[in-house]
Specification:
1276 residues; mainly alpha; 70% helix
């Protein structure tokens, strides 16, 4: 036999030649290919270890670690330990982590290798591997520090969405390596030196992307969760950096206080200075300081004020140390960092030195221009800590100057934030210290020095806060003295001692006016307005004297404040003044003087301007006009007031505050108001519209308003506020031919308003005339788009809206008069005939234009036939007329067919169909021999809509179905209804089909229909299932009385088959609903076999179905009836009931990743009630003696079986994560289970505990403890 030629080298030769390959990548690929046997894996691992120790490229290449992992999978633990022992593994890790720029791929490969070693160390033979992973603390700190740096570099390149997932997978190595170190006293110092800086950077980075509302978790679950990795990292920092520094601080403080404390031997002290040594770089400290402070506050639990006070010195020391590191050039960053640290301290309720807060505030406020956004935030935090710090006069002056500077320098000043978080608390602090005089003076100076509108905004916004502070009883004397002090300039101007054009007078005047307004508001709130009546009188006179100075030319900066102060003074002064006057003429003279003043004329002109003071002028004018309208003033005064009211009419939002003015508006003024309201279309305008509709009807001029007001403005009035006679007038105007072409009111709006008016009583309404006019209006006005030759042309949408209101409007008119005479009916019938006659004369061809008219006539005739006692003599009961009407209807229906698919107005088809449906049988019988022909044409058109593939709208399909049910009674309506319902109709159309089908089958089927349903098998469509439900409800009474097939039991088993065989959730829901209907029916009784089949079917449904929440309540409802009514038959079959309860609990409590996340506490309450009903029956029928408690006996019997329910509950809670709401909701039912077990045997719970494992036993212990604390009744 010849020698065999080797064309390829052996694996041993290839292994030996690895180093001879051209590149490292090729070498690793060759090694990966050869790594498929333990012997080769051993050689590769030794070769790879040398490479990793000697070559930088090998350490940074992810392929090296992939080959490393492949070798570990093939080698036994002892062999791995021998190869990687003697520090080889740690040297490889140290050298690799010390490399720069490791990619994420390399880091992930290293994590995979580490995970393999960790898993092997947990096996029975993994002690050697575990020894490999243990290193000294210093080495572990160096490796972890480098590792954290690499992870931080990778996370900075990740987007925020994937950052948490990446951190969770990568940081696991560093945390586990540190946990496996060999402990030593120097671990804390090594960690702070090497790991503190990168760990803090990671904490800051991870906090930015932490999920909102994330909850803490315990144990290993916390380490694997997205939020748990952050908690674990913070825990390591706290344990090895913060707590040692705190311990040193505490021991030093105790030695200083004279307490001796023995230090732990060989323990290196680590103070605050050494702790913060790695954070000396200000750029790093800006972000790390708040995170470090937050961790320091979380390191020790401080639930009580005493513990928080003890922790305060350590927190202040740490704060000072961090503050010393923030000496960079960026003032904004420094302020932001300090504010964040203060916020963390404040949220933990740790006391803080008032002196330190004052120093911080002073340093920021002294250089406010260099601290804008961050300065405001820092001052807000200081105020949140202690606003009293800023009440010192020098600091308060700096604060007010800084606020003014911030407001003036910012393009978009945050006035709300400054007011709510800074100024308002400071004002409250001044009030508490009773230093309001100093505060008023500071405010006054700021108002004088206002530079622009932005800086003025904040000082004007705090008027309400100042008035609230001045409203206190203790501030009355301060307010009174300030009122006199700040009225001095007004008095000087009134005495002509000062001029409005003087230097700085305008600024001083504005400041005084603002302060006076705040003072008066505060005194009014404190009910001191009566005591300052003299001061109010003086202030009013001084203000009105401004109108006599320089002809009322008030400086522009003061105009708004003058209007506001005048309005406030008049509100406070006028009522006591009127009460004190015995002669009304004095009051009228005063009002005429007010109206005749130049300031009032200027205010009226200002109302119509777009200036900033316009709103204040409107309020002042509204107050004066309201006062003047209450008295019979002179003609000149009345004319001036009317002109002022007319100016207010153009400002509906202000006029809404003065309802007394609305009732006296003239016709012209009402038109102006309504026009302004309808053009504005905002919330205030809608409120005014409602107010007008309630106020104007009480006006004497309202009848004239109704006659002359444009039609489109009439709809603004609510029908409920109108008198019956006025409603009648409005209906007549709406139907009048003279107003038919009013473009402002569309036909649909007109009909809707008529229906609203007819919903209330009307007076002297001629029903027959109104109905005739309504039909005439419908014929003239409601036409589809594209027919410009008619009087009104509407859009498609408007035409559909109007068409839908034809039938309701006609019925509303005919129902208005309850007692109609024969003459009324004759006139109505004649009107219907005349309408059709005019329709025939007006056009030679019936088309969609006539659809509204035909529908109106059909509704009119149907109503007459329904309500009239003797209808044979009426005009519409004429064979020729009926044939003409039917021919028009059918022709219009057929004309709409060819273009139905692309018809923009398919409502015409529906309108004609609705008219045909409304025609009563008494009218159809008059058509004689032509009836069959008409019916044939109608059926053909309707079937063409349903049978063809036309994409007709839903309402067209519904109309066709209704026509078939009326004009083709021999057809299979159920099949047609199923076909229509299977086309995904909307809810409204589906409801119309169901109602039509119910009316059709009202008296047309019996038990034979149920037999056909049972033999046909489970329904294939949801629509069919719903139709079956109606049949069952309709026929169930007959089934109970029937002696032949089908019986109710046959129907019950048909429902059970449907429940199990179909997969459609909606059909299952309908089957369950059918079962619930039968169970509640009187006379329905389940036999033993049916009861067992029902229990088994419910259990199968619960265990095999997803989306159980769709029919969970229905299953509970059926089980409730079974337990209530069939408890006696259930005895001996309680094991089946127990299985159902276990299935219900499984679906309710299973893990959140499954369908039970959609089951809420409502479902848990249903199960709890069922458990209570099963375990604690309130009443049980019993034939035993009355001395035996039947309910107690039933509870004992149930106690034999419910231990399985409790065991299942404990096991399910252990393996899932039910919400707290669900557990609380189901707790009463679990308590009932425990009570039943105790009633049966007092040792039942202990026996169950013995059969459980340790984890289940712990859950049981908690449940029983809750029962003893909250559920067990001990008696008295």
């Amino acid at each position: 036999m010849g020698a065999v030629t080797m064309e390829k080298s052996t694996s041993l030769d290839r292994l030996k030649a690895l180093d001879k390959l051209s590149s490292l990548i090729v070498q690793l690929q060759e090694a990966q290919e050869l790594c498929n046997h333990p012997s080769r894996a051993e050689m590769i691992l030794r070769w790879l270890g040398n490479k990793l120790r000697s070559l930088d490229d090998a350490r940074t290449d992810a392929g090296s670690w992939d080959v490393f992992s492949s070798c570990l999978r093939l080698l036994p633990t002892q062999k791995i330990a021998s190869i990687l022992g003697s520090g080889n593994l740690q040297e490889i890790l140290t050298l690799t982590c010390a490399e720069r720029g490791l990619s994420e791929r390399t880091l992930q490969a290293m994590v995979a290798t580490w995970d393999l070693l960790s898993q092997q160390s947990l096996t029975a033979t993994g002690a050697a591997i575990k020894a490999l992973l243990k290193v000294d603390g210093a080495s572990a700190a160096r490796v972890c520090g480098h590792w954290y740096q690499h992870v931080y570099a990778v996370l900075q390149m990740e987007d925020s969405a994937s950052r948490i997932d990446t951190a969770t997978s990568l940081l696991h190595l560093g945390l586990q390596l540190w946990d496996l170190r060999r402990r030593s006293p120097s671990d804390d110092g090594a960690f702070s030196d090497h790991c503190l800086l990168p760990a803090c950077q990671l904490v800051v980075l991870l906090k930015r992307t932490r999920p909102v509302g994330a909850k803490r978790k315990r144990g290993a679950e916390a380490r694997d969760s997205s939020c748990g990795i952050l908690r674990a990292l913070e825990s390591v920092i706290v344990q090895h950096s913060i707590l040692p520094a705190r311990s040193v601080f505490t021991s030093t403080r105790q030695r200083q206080d004279g307490h001796k404390k023995r230090l732990t031997p060989n323990q290196t002290e680590q103070g605050v200075e050494k702790l913060l040594q790695p954070l000396k770089d200000p750029s790093i400290c800006y972000e790390a300081a708040p995170a470090l402070m937050d961790m320091a506050l979380s390191a020790v639990s401080t639930p009580t004020p005493g513990l928080r006070s003890r922790e305060a010195p350590w927190i202040e020391t740490l704060f000072d140390a961090l503050l010393d590191l923030l000496d960079g050039d960026s003032k904004e960053q420094k302020c932001t960092t300090i504010a964040d640290m203060l916020r963390h301290i404040r949220l933990r309720k740790i006391p803080f030195s008032t002196q330190k807060l004052a120093t911080l505030a002073t340093s920021v406020l002294a250089d406010a221009s260099g601290h804008r956004d961050s300065g405001r935030t820092l001052i807000a935090e200081v105020v949140s800590f202690n606003a009293g710090v800023l009440t010192e006069t020098s600091i308060a002056r700096l604060l007010f100057d800084a606020v003014g500077g911030w407001q003036a320098s910012c393009r978009t000043p945050d006035t709300k934030m400054i007011r709510e978080r800074i100024i308002a608390p400071v004002i409250e602090a001044f009030a508490q210290k009773q230093q309001l005089s100093e505060l008023l003076e500071l405010w006054h100076q700021q108002l004088i020095s206002i530079k622009n509108d932005q800086s003025a905004r904040i000082w004007l916004a705090i008027v309400s806060d100042m008035s609230e502070a001045l409203a206190s009883t203790s501030a009355h004397d301060v307010a009174t003295s300030a009122l006199a002090r700040y009225s001095g300039l007004l008095q000087q101007l009134a005495d002509l001692q000062e001029s409005l054009t003087g230097n700085g007078v305008a600024d001083r005047l504005r400041s005084d006016l603002v302060l006076l307004r705040a003072l008066l508001q505060g005194l009014r709130s404190n009910s001191h307005s009566a005591s300052i009546q003299q001061a109010l009188e003086s202030t009013r006179k001084r203000l009105w004297s401004l109108g006599e100075i320089n002809k009322g030319q008030v400086p522009a900066s003061c105009v708004s404040e003058v209007w506001q102060l005048l309005a406030l003074v008049l509100e406070l002064w006028f009522p006591p003044y009127c009460a004190a006057q015995s002669d009304a003429s004095a009051v009228k003279d005063t009002l005429e003087n007010l109206v005749g003043n130049d300031l009032f004329e200027k205010a009226v002109n200002d109302c119509q301007s777009g200036s900033d003071s316009s709103l204040a002028a409107q309020v002042l004018v509204g107050i004066i006009c309201t006062l003047a309208r209450s008295y019979n003033t002179s003609n000149k005064c009345t004319t001036t007031v009317d002109r002022a009211i007319e100016a207010l009419c153009k400002r509906p939002a202000t006029l809404m505050s003065y309802p007394q003015l609305i009732t006296g508006l003239s016709l012209e003024q009402i038109g102006i108001v309504l026009q302004a309201v309808l053009s504005a279309q905002d919330e205030d305008s809608q409120c005014l519209l409602s107010l007008l509709s309630y106020s104007l009807p009480h006006s004497e001029k309202f009848d004239t308003v109704l006659e002359e007001m444009p039609m489109h403005l009439l709809v603004a009035f609510s029908p409920s506020t109108l008198a019956p006679s006025r409603r009648t007038k409005m209906i007549r105007r709406l139907l009048d031919r003279a107003h038919a072409n009013d473009a402002g009111l569309l036909p649909a709006s007109r009909l809707a308003f008529i229906i609203d008016l007819l919903a209330y009583p009307v007076e002297a309404l001629d029903v027959s005339k109104t109905a005739s006019e309504l039909c005439d209006y419908i014929r003239r006005a409601i036409v589809p788009a594209g027919h410009e030759d008619r009087e009104v042309a509407a859009s498609c949408e408007e035409y559909a809206r109007a068409l839908a209101l034809v039938q309701p409007s006609v019925q509303a008119v005919l129902r208005k008069t309850s007692a109609k005479t024969g003459r009324d009916y004759q006139e109505l019938s004649a009107g219907a005939v005349a309408t059709i006659a005019s329709l025939e004369q007006g056009q030679t061809k019936i088309d969609s234009i006539s659809s509204p008219t035909l529908l109106a006539v059909c509704v009119l005739i149907a109503t007459i036939e329904e309500t009239a006692e003797v209808a044979s003599a009426y005009a519409h009961r004429n064979k020729q007329f009926v044939n003409m009407l039917m021919d028009d209807l059918v022709t219009s229906l057929e004309n709409a067919m060819p273009t139905l698919e692309h018809d923009p107005d398919p409502e015409s088809f529906s309108a004609v169909a609705e008219g045909l449906v409304n025609l009563p049988e008494s009218i159809l019988a008059l058509s004689g021999s032509k009836r069959k022909k008409f019916e044939s044409r109608i059926v053909t058109s309707a079937e063409q809509v349903l049978q063809t593939e036309l994409k007709s709208p839903h309402h067209v399909q519904v109309a066709s179905f209704r026509l078939l049910c009326k004009y083709d009674p021999t057809s299979d309506a159920t099949t047609r209804a199923t076909s229509v319902l299977s086309r995904d109709l909307d809810a409204r159309s589906s409801g119309a089909v169901y109602r039509t089908w119910e009316d059709y089958f009202d008296n047309k089927f019996g038990p034979e229909e149920i037999s056909r349903i049972i033999t046909s098998g489970p329904p294939q469509h949801y629509a069919m299932a719903q139709l079956h439900l109606y049949m069952v409800r309709k026929i169930r009474g007959q089934l109970f009385e029937a002696t032949t097939d089908p019986s109710t039991i046959d129907l019950w088993h048909y429902l059970l088959r449907t429940l199990l065989k179909t997969q459609d959730l909606r059909i299952r829901g309908e089957a369950l609903q059918n079962m619930a209907v039968l169970l509640k029916a009187r006379g329905f009784v389940l036999n033993q076999y049916s009861l067992e089949q029902t229990l088994q079917s419910l259990h199968s449904l619960l265990t095999s179905s997803s989306h159980i929440e769709a029919f969970f309540p229905k299953v509970c409802k059926i089980l409730n009836v079974l337990i209530n009514q069939y408890r006696t038959k259930l005895q001996g079959r309680f094991h089946l009931v127990t299985m159902i309860f276990q299935a219900l609990l499984s679906k309710l409590l299973e893990d959140a990743s499954s369908a039970s996340v959609r089951l809420r506490d409502y479902h848990a309450r249903l199960v709890a009630k069922l458990l209570e009903l099963f375990c604690k029956p309130i009443w049980v029928r019993s034939t035993a003696t009355s001395l035996v408690d039947a309910s107690r006996e039933a509870q004992k019997y149930a106690g034999q079986f419910v231990q399985h329910i409790l065991h299942h509950y404990c096991a399910t809670v252990l393996s899932s994560t039910p919400t707290e709401e669900v557990r609380l909701a189901i707790r009463p039912g679990i308590f009932a289970v425990i009570e039943a077990m105790e009633a049966y045997d007092e040792t039942s719970v202990r026996s169950l505990s013995a059969a459980m494992n340790g984890n289940e036993r712990a859950i049981l212990r908690m449940v029983v403890q809750d029962w003893r604390q909250f559920g067990k009744w001990e008696g008295s």
